[in-house]
Amino acid sequence: MRPATATATAVTTILGAGAAAVAAGRYASDAALKAAPGRPLPTDRRLTVHATGIRRVTLTRSLTALRPGTYGIEGPGVHAVVGPVVEGAESTADTVVRTLERVTHGILEPGDKVRLTPEVYRGDPGTALGLEYREVEIPGELGGLPAWWVPGDRDTWVITAHGLGTTREHPMNLMGFLSGRQLPVLDLAYRGDAGAPRPADGLGHLGASEWRDLDAAMRFAVRYGARNVILYGWSTGASMALHAAANS
User: What confidence tens digit (pLDDT) does each residue in 157-212 have?
Assistant: First the structure.
């Protein structure tokens, strides 16, 4: 196994991480620190499904519902994927029409209460994407950390860390792209996630302590053949990546 310092240098020079978002204000900070992974944040806006049709779904109009891009929408017993706002579609001052890409789970019906989520896949890399993968356990500071490992021919590994209010299903958004380029992917569940150790104080620290789990994942990757490591994170995961690159 190469020294940990060699791994940290590789991460510093090849770092793929989104900008870390820091919640502002006392209420937002409290919500962020106490949010359970995979659960909506207290600040998330719930939307009502007003109508569904062929490749169309009508939602409550709000800044959230008008966001550009592709998102998951989820509610009790249902998960679907919506695309862009449909320009020129019949809507009202209170509603917006978006493209309905697919219903992943359950039945999407008028009256459903849903929220937008960046998680557009449900399940695991095998069921959701048709990728070969293994469930592995990474020895961490607080105990074993579950992770999905998607093999690839290259010796540069991508280690992913999901964002606030999501789970390790979130990085599946780009897993197919990475796998198609023969990059091995290690998709980490970190402290506080389902199946991972719970922090002693029961709080999230926006990457300030969670980065040590990413450091453990880097050591795991080097142990099993990685010569270079790319850290790819969203929000809290991005903060973890920056902490790990600086401190590992």
Answer: 999 999 988 999 999 999 999 999 999 999 999 999 999 889 877 767 677 788 99
- 171 and 154 in a single domain? The answer is yes
Three-class SS of residue 201? Answer: coil
> Token digits for 15?
């770092």
For the chain, where are the alpha helices, taking DSSP H only? Answer: 4-13, 26-34, 125-129, 172-180, 211-223, 236-247
Q: Which of these, 165, 228, 238, lies nearest to 7 by C-alpha position?
A: 228
pLDDT score of 23 more than 70: no
Count of domains forming the chain: 2
Residue 134: which of 122, 126, 144, 142 has the closest Cα?
126
For residue 206, give its domain range: 125-246
Q: 111 with 60: CB under 8 angstroms?
A: no
Under a CB-based contact definition with an 8 Å cutoff, are residues 97 and 85 in contact?
A: yes
Task: Return the pLDDT at 39.
Answer: 53
pLDDT (0 to 100) of residue 9: 34
The phi and psi torsions of 62 (rounded to 5 degrees) equal: -165, 170
